[in-house]
Amino acid sequence: MLLIHCPYCDETLPELEFAYAGEAHIERPKDPSALSDEEWRDFLFIRTNPKGTHYERWRHVHGCARYFNAARDTVSDKFLTTYRAGEARPDLDRKEAAE
Amino acid sequence: MSTYRVSGKGRVNRGETVRFTFDGTSYEGYRGDTIASALLAHGVHLMGRSFKYHRPRGPVAAGTEEPNALVGTSRGKGRFEPNTRATAQELRRGLTVESQNKWPNLKFDVGGINDRMYMLFSAGFYYKTFMWPRSFWDRVYEPIIRAAAGLGRPPEDLDPDRYASRYLHTDLLVVGAGPAGIAAALAAARAGAEVTLMDEHAEMGGSLLSDPDVTIEGAPAWEWLATQLAELDRLGVRRMTRTTAIGYYHQNMVGLCEKLTDHLDDVPADAPRERMWRVRANRVVLAQGALEKPLVFDGNDRPGVMLAGAAQTYLNRYGVKVGDRAVIVTSHDSAYYAAFDLADAGTRIAAIVDTRDTPRDDLAQEAKRRGIDLLAGHTVTGTSGRLRVKSVRVARVSGGKVTDGRAVACDCLLMCGGWTPSLHLFSHTKGTLKFDDALQAFLPDYSAEDCHIAGAGRGLWGYEATLSDGNAAGVAAAVALGHEAQESRIEVQGDRPGTGVTHKELPTDGQPGRARAFVDFQNDVTAKDIRLAVREGMRSIEHVKRYTTNGMATDQGKMSNINGLMIASDAVGKAPPQVGLTTFRPPYTPTTFGTFAGYHRGGHFEVTRKTPIDAWAESHGAAFEPVSLWRRAWYFPKAGEDMDAAVARECAATRNSVGIFDASTLGKIEVQGPDAVEFMNRMYTNPWTKLGIGRARYGLLLGEDGFIRDDGVIGRLAQDLFHVTTTTGGAARVLTMMEDYLQTEWPDLDVWLTSTTEQWATIALNGPNARRVLEPLVEGQDMSAEAFPHMSVAECRVAGFPARLFRISFTGELGFEINVPARHGLALWEALMKSGAQYDICPYGTETMHVLRAEKGFIIVGQDTDGTVTPGDANLSWAVGKKKPDFVGMRSLARPDLVAPGRKQLVGLMTGDGKVKLEEGAQIVADPNQPKPMKMLGHVTSSYYSAALGRHFAMALIEGGHEMEGREVYVPMPDGNHAAKITTTAFYDPEGERLKV
Amino acid sequence: MTNQKHDFPWVTIEDLAPDARFSLRVGEAGRDRAGLTLGLSLPTGVSNVVRHGERAVVCLGPDEWLVTAPEGERDAIVEAFATIYDQTPHSLVEISDRELTYRITGPAAFTLMTIGCPRDLSRLTPGRAVRTVFDGATVILWRDAEDAFRLDVWRSFAPHVRDLLDTGRAELAAGL
After folding, report:
1. CATH assignment at residue A78
2. Which of B32, B592, B601, C170 is a plausible cystine mate for B270, CB 3.0–4.6 Å?
3. What ipTM describes this predicted complex?
4. Where is the Aminomethyltransferase C-terminal domain (chain B) (predicted)?
């Protein structure tokens, strides 16, 4: 069971309080009707599924109820960092250098 | 008492005898004995028959790694457990023990014939033998041959015991309370760390309990131990015994199984048998020690053949000598100390057979001083004795040749093939191992967790080395936790250091093909099996393991993995690390299902949600059905009624007069804020802008893929306030989906969502007399058809309670849904029952609700839809706003697949005479005589008897169904093919006349 | 032999009478005004509690507060918020009947909480409250003192939680 840092509560808490919510940084198009069938298909169904760093969404469902984003290593399963919804994808190299 | 007790030895309580039975014979042991130590004290070595060959077996170890001495134990009715490790289970008064895998009895076992047929049962025999003829699979192989293999019998009664669980957060968890673990815990606790120390044994001390003849920091080992434990207690260290770390999970979460009562004579009421601890530790010290390896030679499994360290444990910890005349065979120095301890306690040591050419000088002199015959550069080539070893054949090895074989009489043979660091938990963490050529053992390498490994677990030997290493690990952990601490060396006098070598099978002058040299005792795997597997093409150790089942028994190869690897790598011709080590997985030792289930059994298995009106339904004889986590009243049978009769009566009563229904489980969401209407427009397919205050509308929710997700009636209570209802099962899902869009796609919207599902109790009244029942109870709302028409909502008082009152209908009859604060739900129900008495008001359950809605063609999301149904497919295009710029799922409604012909669409199905109830889920075909496999057009989604129609009717999803109205299709069912005509889904009152009142 | 006998002291579990409860949602711009309407300053930072008279407000999320008050103050609170709605849009939803509350007190209260709550409760210092999970059910967990907790549990989940608390109390009484 993982530990997850909630960027809204600013606490590191057990995974049982959280729910996974799919890949992050997939924004719903502002005007879906303007999209071609292929573009809309990509938005609906196409995901990266990487080995390594994965940007994904979680929700602190048994807590502050906020959705937030996380970078997680799909090999070790561990979280690299978490950040608030709407914030830009973090530059992990720079973050590691700073630590 | 028994003849093999040694006076002055052991830690068992000689003042307290404990009586138990083994295979019906009564025995006495002492408090603190295990089953094995107590039986050995009576000279009983034979404790079971082996898995495949039914060979006589006795204990080979003295701990949980034991592969042989597995017994059935019973602590009373329902408390039978198979495969209890006799070497770990403590005695308790009245414990009933039985041996396993034997018939008619342990000493004469018919299944022992398997042993003579061993050539048939070699590696992979399942794959080779159980192939043909086909008819033998069910009649011979499964019932007879399989039944002859295996260990123990499963318990037959429900487990009456309780199981518990807790979470524990600790700064430092130390796994294993041997010398290294104790030293680590003490170093960290002295530095101020908060420490938890645990051990699987009944008491702490580890190897010190088995091998106490040393002096630590000036004190005899056991005195030193008592002092340390007292100090740990003084420092507030949490000490847990009889507790096994079964798994090591992400981020220092360690699962512990604590055995609380199996050792107690009298179990306190309400005491759990075992407790699962889910421990989260900031740091972990693994001090699990090392496991002794057997040597592999012909007849190494005979009762009386055991690990030298085990014999030393039985002597020093339990005061039991395992025999009167022992032979030692070893490749490691440690067995010498076992031999010396046994010799000093009165066991005649007939010989020490050292496979190495030059034993350590001091050890050789100690042996000589005791008059022990030391045979260096020797091997063991076989044993004799049917139910107990009688002699061992030893031979000289020189220049690769085995010569001068001779028998040495003995009643026990103590072997030591070196020690394997116990790395199971470390492996659970995905920590990597590296092979140490000098030690011929795998050692921990990269660690994926914040853990330290101390002592014999990382290949160290001797007390001074392990104690000091434990101290260093404790200091390192404390420093990592922010404390200040200094390492210190722990001095040991009379230390017992040692080294050794690792072997494949011992050399022999016999025929290797005939040798019964066991590698895995529990699964009856021999060295020959492993070599055969390699000959037959297995190269990876993972393949060898699965082909031979080496290491696949419940001990996970604690004693067999390295020996198996040494033999396999020799056969493959590669170094051990190139052949690899199999993966250890949790649990470390077999763990009861009860411990994993914990509190979640019986009535507490899962949450059962009940409405405020549930108690009334129960006291009025309702039958219940589960709907998501809820239990809902299904129907209310009267005396003598079956379900069909009750439902037909409830339906008729509702259509003819009035019915009352508990709808409290419906999901309810308060949508409030200046942007509430905009939010509703974006989420639901329907247009909301023009919905007046006080009005309600059916709302349809799609996923972004265009498929129906949920539906419900939504009322507008104020300009900025909507009362949204969802399906019972969809409540949490819909709120989650709404929050997702609101928080992450449209954070600019000023609107907030609050679940009010459980704030309100909801009661539906339906039927032509519904208004007459309700009106007298309503204050603050004109109930006339003009003032409160169909699809209205108002805030008022009902039966004196504040209420949100809807006029809506899921039945096609005049209908109301009354929401009151949940605490008043039951009182409102009773008031309505009273008011409705003159109209014979009829309580109905979910089944009648389903029938009545189906008669109107109303869908149940999840029953008539399956996640691939669009509004158009379900005849709900009318609910989709045509002029809206966007809503969730709108773009998908134009996807090529969603506009293509041949979609499965919702239609009615009527059989000819209406007497047949089509099965829900039954497939539908155009021509029942077509060749198989038939083309299936769809399936029946809903099927009921309709009291109003006087016949059965059904709904179905059928390919291109909307174009097929009037066509005949067929529904194959177990009793034959039924023809049915496709109709619309408006079965009853299609014009909606009954609502116009 | 070490005998693992813990000397566990008592714990009591009580049902509490309902009080008036609201879920308050308001954006940053309206926070001060909303607090003023309650006669206090809304706490910021999840888990912080502010009290005023018999009213207590806990911050459950960045824009979410749980307001508790005596039943007699319910209507006044509703009316006060109604008057500020136009200038200070918010959502005030009465949830007095949504949850039932249990109080758990006594020297073994902390241990009893650990049978269902995966959080490190030592970090939930007295005076604070959080939404968390207890044996699968969402709860609001209040720590009123070192050895006093309250659990607000959704009405239909409450018997399940209560059942486990009772089981745990019996287990503690058994001393193992």
Report:
1. 3.30.2270.10
2. C170
3. 0.96
4. 904-989
Distance in angstroms (rounded) separating the CA atoms of residues B401 and B403: 6
Q: List all residues 6 or more positions away from B489 whose beta carbon is below 8 Å from its beta carbon.
A: B464, B468, B471
**Do the chains contact at C175 and B270, CB–CB below 8 Å?**
no
Q: Chain B to chain C, count of Cβ pairs less than 8 Å apart? A: 127
Considering only CA atoms, which of B536, B575, B568 is closest in space to residue B551? B568
Asked, for residue A32, whether it belongs to a domain, the answer is: no
Strands B305-307 and B412-416 turn out to be parallel
Domains of chain C and any CATH numbers: 5-17+98-175 (3.30.1360.120), 20-96 (3.30.70.1520)
Nearest CA in chain A to C62: A8
For residue A88, which phi and psi values (nearest 5 degrees)? Answer: -70, 155
Total count of residues recorded for chain C: 176
Tell me, which fold does domain B517-576 have in CATH?
Answer: Arc Repressor Mutant, subunit A (1.10.10)
Express each pLDDT in B243-285 by its tens digit. Answer: 999 999 999 999 999 999 999 999 999 999 999 999 999 999 9
Architecture (CATH level 2) of domain B662-756+783-822: 2-Layer Sandwich (3.30)
Return the CATH superfamily for domain B163-290+421-485.
FAD/NAD(P)-binding domain (3.50.50.60)
Chain C neighbours among A 48-87 (CB < 8 Å)?
61-66
Query: Which residue's entry shows tokens 């929700």?
Result: A59
Are the Cβ atoms of C120 and B269 closer than 8 angstroms? no
Q: Tell me whether residues C171 and B821 touch, CB distance under 8 A.
A: no
> Does residue A31 lie in a domain region?
no
B346's CB contacts (< 8 A; 6+ apart) are B6, B321
Residue type at B168? L
Using a CB–CB cutoff of 8 Å, tell me whether C123 touches chain A: yes
The domain covering B858-995 belongs, at the CATH homologous superfamily level, to Probable tRNA modification gtpase trme; domain 1 (3.30.1360.120)
- Number of domains into which chain A is organized: 1
Contacts with C, B 231-250, CB within 8 Å = 239-242
List of chain B residues whose C-beta atoms are within 8 Å of the C-beta of residue A77: 250
Alpha helices in B708-756 (DSSP H): 731-740
pLDDT tens profile B472-522: 999 999 999 999 999 999 999 999 999 999 999 999 998 878 899 999 999
Contacts of A40 in chain B (CB under 8 A): 891-892, 895
Asked, for residue A93, whether it belongs to a domain, the answer is: yes
Judged by DSSP in three states, B688 sits in coil
Q: Residue A61: closest CA among chain B residues belongs to which residue?
A: B736
At C77-92, the pLDDT tens digits run 999 999 999 999 999 9
Which residue range forms the structural domain that includes residue A84? 1-26+47-98
Q: Model confidence at B166, in pLDDT bands (50, 70, 90)?
A: very high
Residue with tokens 């318990």: B155
Q: What is the CATH number of domain B295-416?
A: 3.50.50.60
What is the assigned CATH class of domain B1-157? Answer: alpha beta
B295-416 shares the fold of B163-290+421-485: yes
Size of interface A-B (CB pairs under 8 A): 58
Q: CA nearest A2 in B: which residue?
A: B250
Residue B511 is predicted with a pLDDT of 85
The pTM of the full predicted model, rounded to 2 decimals, is: 0.94
Q: Give the position of tokens 């020297």.
A: C107
CB < 8 Å to C120, chain B = 169, 280
DSSP code at position B745: I
Closest residue, chain A, to C45 (C-alpha): A9
Burial B110-120 (b: 16+ CB within 10 A, else e): ebbebbeebee
Query: Looking at the domain assignment, is residue A41 inside a domain?
Result: no
User: Which of chain C's residues have a Cβ under 8 Å away from the Cβ of B673?
Assistant: 89-91
